[in-house]
């Protein structure tokens, strides 16, 4: 009984250490996710944000930059083409620009920029939603690990008590 309790306690100690390492890894991932979410919050990309991106999120950040840029350009271009093709736009341009191609170009650029910003904002919301889902999953794993660790620590205390009782019996039997 005494030796069995020692073996079980030692086994639990190793399991607890393993779960605590997993817990530390999850907490680091959560911290990295929060840092990355802060970097992409405004949709803009700066060198400073890129340099401050956690190493574990660097590739994701690069992918976000490239994909959001391409998505926003494509979406803005498609929306601009739809707008230019409409008869309402043609009438508005004739009224606003008076046939001046520079004014029409300015309106097109302004419309493109607005469409681009809307698409960029949409992409950031999409990425944040993905991050939120990942954070939820990590939090569930973290809570499960914390519960398992607490349970194992309670079992470990019971085995410690059994070991103490076993030692007392062993020494009292020798006396």
Give a quick rundown of the structure.
The chain has helices at 2-40, 47-52, 58-85, 87-97, 101-174.
Overall 3D form: rod-shaped
Q: What order do the SSEs take from the amino end to the carboxyl end, as H and E?
A: HHHHH
Oligomeric state of the chains in view: single chain
Total separate domains: 1
Computed over alpha carbons, the radius of gyration is 31 Å
Unreliable stretches covering 5 or more consecutive residues: none
Please report the distance between the alpha carbons of the first and last residues.
20 Å
Number of helices: 5
Please identify the structural class as seen in this structure: mainly alpha
> Which percent band covers the strand fraction?
under 5%
Per DSSP E runs of 2 or more residues, the count of β-strands stands at 0
Give the biggest sheet.
none
Percent in helix:
over 70%
Q: Average pLDDT value?
A: 91
């Amino acid at each position: 009984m005494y030796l069995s309790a020692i073996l079980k306690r030692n086994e639990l100690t190793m399991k607890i250490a393993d779960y605590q390492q997993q817990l530390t890894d999850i907490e680091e991932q959560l911290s990295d996710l929060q840092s990355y979410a802060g970097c992409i919050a405004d949709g803009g990309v700066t060198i400073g944000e890129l340099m401050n991106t956690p190493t574990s999120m660097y590739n994701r950040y690069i992918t976000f930059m490239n994909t959001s840029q391409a998505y926003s350009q494509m979406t803005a271009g498609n929306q601009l083409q739809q707008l230019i093709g409409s008869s309402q736009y043609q009438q508005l341009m004739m009224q606003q620009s008076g046939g001046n191609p520079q004014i029409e170009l300015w309106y097109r650029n302004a419309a493109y920029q607005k469409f681009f910003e809307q698409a960029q904002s949409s992409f950031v919301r999409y990425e944040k939603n993905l991050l939120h889902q990942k954070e939820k999953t990590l939090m569930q794993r973290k809570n499960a690990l914390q519960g398992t660790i607490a349970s194992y620590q309670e079992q470990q205390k019971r085995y410690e008590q059994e070991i103490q009782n076993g030692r007392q019996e062993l020494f009292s039997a020798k006396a």
